[in-house]
Specification:
With 421 residues, the protein is an alpha/beta fold. It is 38% helix and 14% strand. It contains 19 helices and 13 strands. The strands form four sheets. A six-stranded parallel beta sheet has the order 5-2-1-6-7-8, sandwiched between helices. A three-stranded antiparallel beta sheet has the order 9-10-11, with helices on one face. A hairpin with a 5-residue loop joins β9 and β10. α7 crosses α8.
Amino acid sequence: MVESAAAAAAGTTQGPLAGMRVVELGSLIAGPFATRILAEFGADVIKIEPPPRGANPGGDPLRTWRQLHQGTSLWWSAQARNKRCISVDLKDQRGRDIVRRLVERADVVVENMRPGALEKLGLGWDDLRAVNPSLVMVRISGFGQTGPMCSQPGFGAIAEAMGGMRYVTGDPDRPPMRANLSLGDSIAALHAVIGALMGLRHRDATGGRHTGKTGGIGQVVDVALTESVFNMMESTLMEYSAAGIVRERTGTSIPGIVPSNVYRSKGGEWVQISGNGDAIFKRLMRAIGRLDMAEAPALANNPGRMQQAVAIDAAIQSWAGLHDAEAIVQAMRSADVPCSRIYSIADIAADPQFQSRGMFEHHRLADGKPVDIPAPAPRLSATPGGTRWLGPELGAHNDEVLRELGLDGAQITALREAGVI
């Protein structure tokens, strides 16, 4: 891939994770998204993919998901950024030996195979910690490494359903809804990154690389997609266990937080207005000409507003329906009330706030076609993340990585001819 000026600049600054070595044994979304974040902030991520085999092109299936450009997913350009990609046949003993040698030098392994799959290959936790006792192994699966469902296949959509998110999403008289995104996978990936960093912190505290001592205690970070989603479910368990309340679908509003809803403008666009702070509510009501509500003692705090949520929403909608979306946004901002149009990706790309924050990196694909990818988040003042290169071709770093392991050209050629890489 062709590097942009932004990518070249990123290459001059070491990220906060520089020196961390990560082996990725994952595919599609959760595992690769976790390692993408680590790579954005300086970790050396070596992604292992299956080589071509007969009619099977090999590689991570994400390479051919969603919108393609010259046969490769545009998503891939960002998801595999900064990673060194090698092709290794894990069904071949020689391929498994390569993985073990990489693990000897690694700080972290991230995998998202079905529990037991790596054990069958001799690459499970007990096998890998035998070659590297300080290893932090992040294991991402649908239901975790234990329990009656651990061996079942699990995807992000199933995690959203079983973890409770789908039940509370949508209109009360309609089927449970999903976002047009892989939320379950992405939420699990964030938990995986947190777990990896905590595992490394413990390793270093017990005699790891940065203490000047040898060793350090490694461990398994067991990330279940279902549990990661469940971890986002706020107070639902407490409400159920203490009061028997099951939170239901409520469409665009959140009961107990009033007013916070979407309202339809004169032109049919939708606008989110969140006036649920006591002082903010007064400013909102004054801005829409409802001084009676602004000064009503019964509406001075959230418990009182909860009792009149329908009337409050009706008043705001009545006003919003008289104005176009931009006028609504400007009126709310002038009154210091949180507000936004409901953005599409086209709106995001054109928004001055995102642009001023540098949230779009401009790159070129291998054929020169321009492509924008999201800039790394969060923003670090001294050691920001960046993109050194976009998602590479399958096996692009085979020779480089294998030479680092001590293999010479003849050995690499033999492995390639045997279909191991």
